[in-house]
Amino acid sequence: MQTQRLTMAQALVLYLTQQVVSRDGVETPFFAGAWGIFGHGNVAGIGQALQQYSDRFRYYQCRNEQAQVHAAIAYAKHKNRMQTFACTSSIGPGALNMVTAAAVATVNRIPVLLLPGDIFAERLQAPVLQQLENEHSQDISVNDCFKPVSRYWDRLNRPEQLILAMPEAMRVLTSPADTGAVTLALPQDVQTMAYDYPQTMFQKRVWVIPRNRPDRALIQQAAEWIKAAKAPLIVAGGGVHYSEAYAALRSFVESAGIPSCETQAGKGALPYNHPLNLGAVGTTGTSGANIMAREADLIIGIGTRYSDFTSASKTAFQNPDVKFININVAEFDSYKQSALPLTGDARAALEELGQAISGFSTAAAYRQRAADFNRAWDLEVHRIYNLEHEPMLSQGEVIGMVNSQSRSQDVVLCAAGSLPGDLHKLWRTRDPRGYHLEYGFSTMGYELAGGLGVKMADPEREVYVMVGDASFLMMNSEIVTMVQEGVKVNIVLIDNHGFASIGGLSKSVGSDGFGTKYRYRSEDDQLDGDTLPVDYAAICRGMGAHVIAATTREDLSAALETAKTIQGKPVCIVTETDRRQRVGGYESWWDVAVAEVSENPAVQEARQQYEQNKAKERYHL
């Protein structure tokens, strides 16, 4: 057997250059390169290897280890999981910075390869700089924290262990059902050790992404359930996107006359103005979607994991006879809600199910009711877009202006705060790739790094990152990376002086927004003094962005038009909104437990309302 003598790190990088995925006969290099920050624990190993192979495996320098993984996640999500990045860090704090983002990848089922440096395998030097000592074991480092948030985890204590570890890592990364964060902890000495690796390890390997089919008998049973239903409803989730099942879903909806609603991850599966698209469902849903969900006798979940926002904390589906059919590539999700499980690829399953119910259609009056809800909701969106609220803009108006002045193919991106709920309800999605929300983990700080990742994945689209001031302050350093790489992202920074979303939630549970506003500490030792004078425009300008301040509708409109003319650098539009002017809820609820006893009458009242709503929660058995 022919071999090649390489360090473990060199072999790892060379292996990554040869990994290809294929679906429907289309091949794609799986790794777009590596993100990293070099330091104690990876500079001499992975750092040297990335330099050696820089002509075939591109390295990107980030400013924060968590942010680099967010960028990789956003890139992979926009690529429908067909391409991703490796992310490397030093040991200790550098590695731990990636733990939150690893959870983001795993919760959202997005592939990303994490390569944190680790302590010396030989242990002679222990305790090294940044080592967490444990008096009970010498085989624990901070990288063990990745275990619960990774879909696959390994520590390579010998260079030859790479030969087995890499195919296992790729198996998970390319799995439609089991993907997420894959973590390979790399002791810093082992990274630099040489071994005679088999040449076959560095040949091109194609990983076929299958379109698994559900069991035929279950397809027939599902068809019988659909034909017997009087009020069926589709809940379209992220699996529609990852399967690229847009045409199959539209054909199924139109031929069977079954209305469809959307989760955060599924938004855009149908265009917003399709007459059978009811829009967002659940806690952040539209009135029509939630009313028809409440009454439905059959729910067809496609690629959804039924998060508490989708199910409105198990209150969304109230018909006592409701049944569930779940199309999902993951068996774990296809069985949820005690459903009839069609475990398989969304596109393939829809095509087969569509054939099985050929000739079936819901009643004309039922289809018309859905169309009426679609038109009524569009009128509500128009109203919110054009409030002309004074003296400051409302958040709904800002969303409306960005939506109206962007192109259909452009992308809006968000993750946390009150914006995701408003965007889910209000954003008129015209293109399947036009809506990008990280709402599995709803991670504050994802937004700017995520916008960078999406723009790198799809440079021809304009990317509009909508971010509140609180999320912006948590992680804004990748503006510098955008400047360094010449990446143009439009950042719409909404200043509402604090944690506006959680402030509203605080009020709803009787706590009056305590600790959620950005205020000076007052003379009575409370955080209720004057508003903090944070200059967000100066922060962005100092990092190299083109900055535009917008106060009025006219200002914002002009800023959005000016932003279109700027190329090669990020544009930051800073606008202030009235946090008191909110988009309401529509026929739904979210379970946030309220204190059972309190001296505060507002809390007592909130608890009483909470108990009434909680009584509607139900299991589907």
Describe this structure in words.
This protein is α/β, with parallel strands linked by helices. It has three domains: 3-208, 3-Layer(aba) Sandwich (Rossmann fold); 216-376, TPP-binding domain (Rossmann fold, 3-Layer(aba) Sandwich); 386-497 and 532-576, Thiamin diphosphate (ThDP)-binding fold, Pyr/PP domains (Rossmann fold), CATH 3.40.50. It contains 23 helices and 23 strands. The strands form five sheets. A six-stranded parallel sheet has the order 5-4-6-7-9-8, sandwiched between helices. Strands 14-13-12-15-16-17 form a six-stranded parallel sheet, sandwiched between helices. A six-stranded parallel sheet has the order 19-18-20-21-23-22, with helices on both faces. Helix 16 (419-426) links the parallel strand 18 and strand 19. The radius of gyration is 25 Å and the shape is globular. The mean pLDDT is 96.
Quick overview:
The chain has 621 residues and is of the alpha/beta class. It folds into three domains: 3-208, Thiamin diphosphate (ThDP)-binding fold, Pyr/PP domains (Rossmann fold, 3-Layer(aba) Sandwich), CATH 3.40.50; 216-376, 3-Layer(aba) Sandwich (Rossmann fold), CATH 3.40.50.1220; 386-497 and 532-576, Rossmann fold, CATH 3.40.50.
Largest sheet: 6 strands, parallel
| Overall shape | globular
The number of E-state strands comes to 23
Strand order of the largest sheet: 5-4-6-7-9-8
Mean pLDDT: 96
User: In CATH, what is the homologous superfamily of the largest domain?
Assistant: Thiamin diphosphate (ThDP)-binding fold, Pyr/PP domains
What count of domains describes the coordinates?
A: 3
Query: Helicity, in percent?
Result: 25-40%
Text of the CATH class of the largest domain: Alpha Beta
Summing up helix and strand content along with how strands pair, one would put the structural category as: alpha/beta
CATH architecture of the largest domain: 3-Layer(aba) Sandwich
What is the straight-line distance between the termini?
A: 57 Å
Strand portion: 15-25%
Radius of gyration: 25 Å
Catalogue the unreliable spans.
none
**What is the third-level CATH name, the topology of the largest domain?**
Rossmann fold
Number of DSSP helical runs: 23
